[in-house]
Design brief:
The protein has 158 residues and is α+β, with helices and mostly antiparallel strands. It is 27% helix and 29% strand. The protein contains 4 helices and 6 strands, in the order H-E-H-H-E-E-E-E-E-H. Helix 1 runs parallel beside helix 3. It is globular and about 50 Å long.
């Protein structure tokens, strides 16, 4: 849905227009509020935080940078939900991911759920000539994404 957000669309255009020079580093924070349901802790039913929350971060940074991932390094642990440690020993609620893109750009994704202070989504793109920051609640982007999806079905365009 971030691809439909006006702030992300504006940032994409600025990057493509060279407003910050050549991108060299992108950082994305994706933290969800509230206690996730128990199925989320079972990695046989859920792919965990990196898929359930941070999939949006991975998609949006690939889109913004215009490149696929070449290398991915990740560390994760359960710092906040001790009630799941015994039953789900592989569960993690916090992750740090370091990336290298095929075009040479470096990246980072920082994820946590639950972030008890609230919903937190931010992206920073560092370029050779400047920097962009993006943050949003995405209300309009969800609506625009749904309209786009329905239009694709109605017009048989994928």
């Amino acid at each position: 849905m971030r691809r439909f957000d006006k702030n992300f669309l504006r940032a994409k255009k600025l990057i493509e227009d060279g407003a910050i020079g050549t991108p060299i580093l992108i950082k994305s924070v994706g933290r969800g509020p509230g206690l996730p349901p128990e199925w989320y802790a079972d990695l046989n039913k859920s792919n965990g935080l990196l898929a359930e929350v941070n999939s949006h971060d991975f998609d949006s940074i690939r889109w913004l940078i215009g490149s696929n991932f070449k290398k991915v390094y990740a560390l994760a642990d359960n710092f906040k939900l001790s009630q799941y440690k015994e039953k789900y020993p592989d569960f993690y609620d916090t992750a740090a991911v370091i990336l290298k893109f095929e075009n040479g750009v470096l990246g980072m994704v920082d994820g946590c759920c639950p972030a008890t202070y609230g919903y937190d989504v931010r992206v920073e793109i560092l370029g050779t000539e400047g920097m962009l920051q993006i943050g949003s609640k995405f209300k309009d982007a969800y609506e625009e994404g749904a309209r786009h999806f329905v239009n694709c079905i109605l017009t048989n365009v994928i």
